[in-house]
Amino acid sequence: MPTVTVCTDRFESFARGKAVALKAARLPIVSIPHPISGRREEEVAAMASEVLPKLVEAVLTLPEAGDSDVKMDTAPSKFSDPIELEDDSEKIYDFFYRQGWTDGLPIIPPTSERVQRVLQQYPGDPADVLGTIPHLNGEATVERCVIAMVMAGCLPSYLPVVLAAVRAMMAPAFNIQAVQSTTNAIAPLLILNGPVITRLGFNCKENVFGQGNRANATVGRAIRLILLNIGGADPGKLDRATHGHPGKYSYCVAENEDESPWEPFHVDRGFRREDSVVTVVGADAPMNINDASSTSAEGVLHSIASAMITPGSNNALRGGEPLVVFSPEHADLIARDGWSKADVRAYLYEHSQIPLYKFSPENRKRIQLLRKKWFEREGDKDKVALADSPEAIMLLVTGGPGKHSLLITNFGNTAHASRQIDFAQTCDC
Question: Are residues 324 and 310 part of one domain?
Fold first, then answer.
């Protein structure tokens, strides 16, 4: 069916880029002044009256079916066509940067020799497709993912982790389309569990969300370069994040399973403890929760639940799966008092509910539309929960010494996805 796209003028470049990706470069686009949100009803009505004639004209002049199609390779040529460059690392980096193929940081040149060295670890065809990544609808072949790995500085042995993470992001519930394009400050967070942590040397202790570990840094960065170069998530063009956050360079951690008093994160998701698993979460930046004074489980959890009362978060507006990250010391204190993960989730769910008076009148109306099922429940009219249910609150134990925990809210329009890591696609090199 012929279609007309309506968007604000600040997002017209996004709409045109998306139209090309959908092989409909001549799709009519009608733009209106940005922004729409925050305007009074009479302003919106005036804008609608002004744009209506343009919309009618666009509908009346729609091209014939098929006439708007422009044939386009579904994969960006940047990861398809070999190029020859002078063997000068600074010049190569400058060239890649000017082409928009990097995250702004220096890269390892993805020469044929380096790419083939990694592909030797893969038992299948390098042209195997893991999935299609919006917005360019680029095919994430194994070879293209390996090119991103080389650029990011990954070791060849990291290959099965990267492939599993890409496959996880293809899960419909993860909603990669929205994660790629939203104005929200969202990035895919990778969580590693199982023997892979020690086998490949992922950091799960001090500074786990920070710098200093090759596996964490380069695997997370490879995912970003895949989203950029295969999916076309160019900042300011098809990646429309208002602010973004530092995790959009690299966002990869491992659970400190040895110091956790509970079953690991991946076991909660139905895997065996001995499985190596990667989970992807569409995640905001972490917010630190400092509680070095509480001496009881309820004291620590009170601090965390209070920090979760955030009316401006996506989870408050949409529900979803907020992630609470405990330091081993906080987790040990809570478990010492006999609290299970189920107990923790039930407490946090109940005590982090946000009174509706904390929202502006306009946002109260918005929440009632977005979370209709919540307000259909009996007795839940004066407050709203951050999570869809107690079970939706994700709990992770990681990091080093210190009385700190973290709250990581998420998009709300996405759900986590987990994938087992296949070590048949690796070597010990």
Answer: yes
